[in-house]
Amino acid sequence: FVLSALSSDEQGALMELTDALGMNANKRAEVISHLADLSVFHGKPILEFLLVEEARSIVHDEEIPRPERAERFRRLIRSWKFPELVISELEFQEWLRGLPESEGIVVRPAPGFESHECTVEIRTESRKEVERILSKLTEP
Which of 122, 42, 50, 53 is nearest to 83 (CA)? Predict the structure, then answer.
């Protein structure tokens, strides 16, 4: 639906881009939708976003495998559309790297990083293992 509302130049450029990056239908729809939203929000044609040097360098870097270029391009477009969310996600990932590693523990942020709350999930074979993990985490 979004694609049909665009100019033929934008349609062609987006189809060529997503084909060149080997995107499936869902990833293609995500990128096109984000770019259309950015176009409206910033009052610029979609083609201007595709001409940004950072976008062009990702798309045209033949040394990077096509799936990795597609993923980098999706991350770039997402960072333009949701800059604060992307920063929060990166900060959370960095914070997680600073925690002691423990198998069986998963830490999830609040949905959409709406707060600094986290959910900690512990999966083990036994209660004794839970006690061991908890004591390891709470020891000074």
Answer: 42
DSSP assignment of 81-122 equals H-HHHHHHHHHHHHHHHTSPP-TTEEEEEPGGG-SS-EEEEE
What's the CA gap between 94 and 84, in Å, rounded?
15
d(CA 71, CA 25): 14
- The two structure tokens encoding residue 69: 């270029």
pTM more than 0.85: no
Non-local CB neighbours of 19 within 8 Å, separated by 6+ positions: none
Please tell me the distance from the alpha carbon of residue 23 to that of residue 15, in angstroms, as a whole number. Answer: 10
pLDDT tens digit sequence for 37-61: 999 999 999 999 999 999 999 999 9
Other Cβ atoms closer than 10 A to 129 = 14
pLDDT digits (tens, 9 = 90+) for 99-113: 777 777 889 999 888
